[in-house]
Amino acid sequence: MDNEEILGHLIDFGKRISRETNLNALFETLGDFSRDIVNADRCSIFVFDKNKHELWTKVSHGVEELRMPADKGIAGFVVMTGEIQIVTDAYNDFRFYDEIDKQTGYRTRSLLAVPLFDKNENVIGVIQVVNKKKGFFTNNDAELLILISNYIGSTLENAILYEKLNDTKIKLVYKLSTAAEFKDEETSLHTKRVAFYSAVIAGAYGLSRDDVENLIVTAPMHDVGKIGIPDNIIKKNGKLTDEEFDIIKTHTTIGYNLLQDDENEILQEAAIIARDHHEKWNGRGYPKGIAEEEISLHGRIVAVADVFDALTSRRPYKEPWSVEKALNLLKKESGIHFDPNLVELFMKNRDEVMDIHEKYKE
Ligand code: C2E
Ligand code: SIN
Ligand code: SIN
Ligand code: FE
Ligand code: FE
Known about the structure:
Elements: H1 3-19, H2 23-37, E1 40-49, E2 54-60, E3 67-69, H3 73-81, E4 85-87, H4 99-104, E5 111-117, E6 123-132, H5 139-182, H6 189-205, H7 209-218, H8 231-234, H9 242-249, H10 251-259, H11 265-276, H12 297-312, H13 323-332, H14 340-348, H15 350-359
Antiparallel strand pairs: 1-2, 1-6, 2-3, 4-5, 5-6
Helix pairs in contact: 1-2, 2-5, 6-7, 6-12, 6-14, 6-15, 7-11, 10-11, 11-12, 12-13
Bound molecules: ligand C2E, succinic acid (SIN) (2 copies) and fe (iii) ion (2 copies).
One fe (iii) ion binds at residues 181, 194, 222-223, 306.
């Protein structure tokens, strides 16, 4: 690549990353860019997990997330020494760790690995490009990678921080939502399944990656209002009286009032879901009895996910239904209780639904 081409790439790269708000997508862009700018076949961005003493890949072209011991391989050498490495023939380098090739069936030949630093100059990862398309990696290639490694380093540092916060947030949501919904410390599997079923529908509907990720946090909170309903009603192992059911119905507005927050759009979304998840397409739900598109899209999505999961789960008042029977109810209630378009998307993605059902079994 000549200088003009590189400049063109850099400008294009700047445009793309400034538009990218999703961190995972940002890393994909960074990986693609690093690969292209040095004419490599693949790029991996390794993250150094100090606690587990492992390296794992944030980006890895063509393969799933990989993990390896932090002191293994060329990448491990770079993490331990903080030095750049250029390797022309990996299999003739005693440091090379061939386990990953063995797992993926890929054949590494040449390799260039550059350390990533945080702002305190600690190594926090490695950017590694593999298999130069023509010839070998040069010092020029190394310089180009160093140029963007500063940017990748600080992005990575933020991403690690963000992920820790996000992990805390999600765990907190599952734990508190579960405590509110079931009044005791059961597993948070119901709240998780509702989150993931909702994500399947939202993804199929065409919502953006950010919107789907937000829904994974907001959907589990749909029933937090049950915290305001007496235990003996929630845990009653038989049919509810009309009076008891009227009390239960208030969990929607209690949840809305609890979560409602004008300044935080995620909480606001959660509040709307709590309020709307028992509304019905035909206008015969509660609390307001609104119909069709008057009901927020998020509320309509969670309605399908929540009922499917309630039906296929054990409750104090009912045995679990089979998946077949639950899907039949969704079909029967399509256009009555549920948005028909969303039921269809749920059915179309039955395989993913089954994976979630199996993976998060009680
Ligand atoms: P939940 O247990 O999370 O159920 C959520 C929704 O799933 C229900 O909303 C309903 O639409 C659907 N669903 C659950 N089980 C069945 C079922 O056996 N058949 C059918 N056709 N649909 C079912 P719904 O009815 O508005 O109830 C809201 C909440 O009220 C329930 O949340 C549960 O906490 C409570 N509840 C409802 N019925 C009973 C009951 O008979 N006994 C007790 N103890 N609680 C009940
Ligand atoms: C290495 O860095 O030695 C190998 C890691 C890889 O295959 O990506
Ligand atoms: C909401 O945040 O749920 C309201 C907008 C919509 O989903 O239709
Ligand atoms: Fe509910
Ligand atoms: Fe629920």
